[in-house]
Amino acid sequence: MKTYTFWLVRLLVMVCVFAVGSVPIVYADAHEIGEEMAEEEASGASGWFRTDTDSLGTQIWVGASHSPSFLGGLSLDTDIYVVGTFGELDIGLGIPVVDSDSLSLSFLPMFGIGFDYAAANGPSSLIAPQLFTYLTAGSIYFESWIQGFFNSPFDYGDDSIYTRDFILYSVNDTLAIGPQVEVTIGVGDEGGLSSMVVGGRANVGYGENNTLGVFVGFETQKGDDETGLTGRMTFVRTW
What domains lie within the chain, and their CATH numbers? Predict the structure, then answer.
């Protein structure tokens, strides 16, 4: 009986020692697995938030870029755009052309559908085709927007083509400046140049991953009672 009790106590002691010794190992393994999963999630998706204030009012944008392995280096990009009672959903495919320390070039074709929730009439606008171009070459950054707005099929207004192009030079890590041009061309029987704004832009770093953009321009198609001075304020947060 004593022998049985002695070996039982000894076995319990060994089990306790083994269990206590295994806790740090199990915790370390779980911690490493958690870090790997977090790194995979962090590397697989990025997001951004943006707010603009211009002639359309204050607009809110939220978007994300996903890079699943099956796309082979491409990314699936989505965003929503909201101004007043109008909401827009865009879906596109990010295409990296060059990605190095000295040069980066990518294209983002997108397709969008817009809804004016002030009336329960379904879609209000087809925003397509869309093409965004992003180029970074040393201290030079170039960005181009080309968007088609087709509203007439939904009896929501006129159709138009819009483009925004700007090129910035980074003076330092905080400030980038350069020219910007925005053009709107009407499509249809009464189409033609309806707006062309020419001016300058400054991007200011507002801490890590934050950028404040200020655009001041002159509307060349201004009315007789207008000064033509216009612009936009933008805040962008990325993560």
Answer: 46-238 (2.40.160.40)
Write down the pTM of the prediction: 0.81
Using CB atoms within 10 Å of the CB of residue 92, give its burial: 0 to 12 exposed, 13 to 18 middle, 19+ buried: buried
Q: Which DSSP category does 177 fall into?
A: E
C-alpha 194/C-alpha 145 separation (Å) is: 17
Provide mean pLDDT across the span 61-67: 97
**Residue 202 phi, psi dihedral angles, 5° rounding:** -135, 130
Extended strands (E) in 56-205: 57-66, 75-83, 86-99, 103-116, 123-137, 140-150, 159-170, 175-187, 192-205
d(CA 132, CA 109): 6
Q: Rounded to the nearest 5 degrees, what angle is found at the Cα of 109, between the Cα atoms of 86 and 93?
A: 100
pLDDT digit string, tens, across residues 77-86: 999 999 999 9
Say how far residue 107 (Cα) sits from the centre of its chain.
13
Residues 6+ apart with CB under 8 A from 147: 127, 129, 130, 161, 162, 163
Quick check: 232 and 215 in contact, CB under 8 A?
yes
What phi, psi does 18 have (nearest 5°)? -65, -40
